[in-house]
Amino acid sequence: MHSNIPDVKLGIVAVSRDCFPINLSEMRRSNIVKAYGDGLYECPVTVENELDMLKAVENVKAAGCNALVVFLGNFGPETPETLIAKNFDGPCMFVAAAEGDGDMINGRGDAYCGMLNCSYNLGMRHLAGYIPEYPVGTADDIVAMIRDFVPIARAYIGIKNLKIITFGPRPQDFFACNAPIKGLYELGVEIEENSELDLLVSYKAHAGDKRIPEVASDMAREMGEGAYYADMLERMAQFELTLLDWAEAHKGARKYVAFADKCWPAFPEQFGFEPCYVNSRLASRGIPVSCEVDIYGALSEYIGACVTDDAVTLLDINNSVPQYIYDEDIKGKYDCKLTDTFMGFH
User: If you ran DSSP here, which 8-state letter would residue 105 be given?
Assistant: First the structure.
């Protein structure tokens, strides 16, 4: 896991409506934990009322959980279970038990109905909760749902702790990079906008940095002999250190960063290279760097990195595919028309 991408620590809290057997929820919760294996903290507090809810939230927070599975082992108490999402500072998933792991008299939980009521209550309270498309299942079913939830939780946690650092204004006549800041704040993302001169000043201040030879050697090993320009390595290493040091010094109260930097037209003249390779090296460490001050592109790349735990980039829909290329390489091999295709570039 990259240090710039969150580590999800999951907990599961069972809820129980007090007119249903509490042991049914607890048994079904334990079955899920056993089926899941390591990595799922089992909260010992089963929530029947609001005071239980407060105790359960406190328990999972103390255990270090930053994402939560709220499990309706039976019908569940609508108000306390939805207030978990309000009081827990992290993403919450809501799922419910299918019938069949007990007799239909003492072992009937009616969690299907409870899940419908839960989703309605979340909506009325304007609370965010992740609900799978079909959120009712056996222990094995719910384990599969939880595993699908993990990358979603990772992205949610990352966004809420992300600062996007930019250098330069969006390029002239490039309205595709428009970036209303209010929308970022609404998502919980912080933003720091800087001038290209700020970046240039910081870059020049890194001249002669003692770390440059080691970074340049690493770049050379990565590219392989004959695949790089030796005179550029030092400049690119200096730039990489500039960005990494800026991120560390400017992330402030945030845990994670992404960059959106202007890379043309003045950049190559002033810095002596294009930053694409350095950008890709940072992306491989979970720190996306989008070109052209594409702020929402940087956010999209960061979300993709959180979901996949891999390096992510963006391709422009750049040009149409010539008819002869379509005829030679696509037609008859893939089920798509010429007008379904495009060439991507970046």
Answer: T
pLDDT for res 108 = 79
240 occurs within a structural domain: yes
Assess whether 187 and 139 both reside in one domain.
no
CA 248, 250, 252, 257 torsion-angle sign:
negative
Nearest Cα residue to 305 out of 330, 287, 331, 280: 287
| 294 lies in some domain | yes
Residues of the chain predicted below pLDDT 50: none
Nearby residues of 245 by Cβ (< 8 Å), 6 or more positions away? 202, 206
Q: pTM for this one? A: 0.91
21 and 74 Cβ atoms separated by less than 8 Å = yes
258 three-state secondary structure:
strand
Count of beta carbons in the 10 Å neighbourhood of residue 70:
27
Instruction: State the pairing for strand pair 67-72/343-345.
Output: unpaired
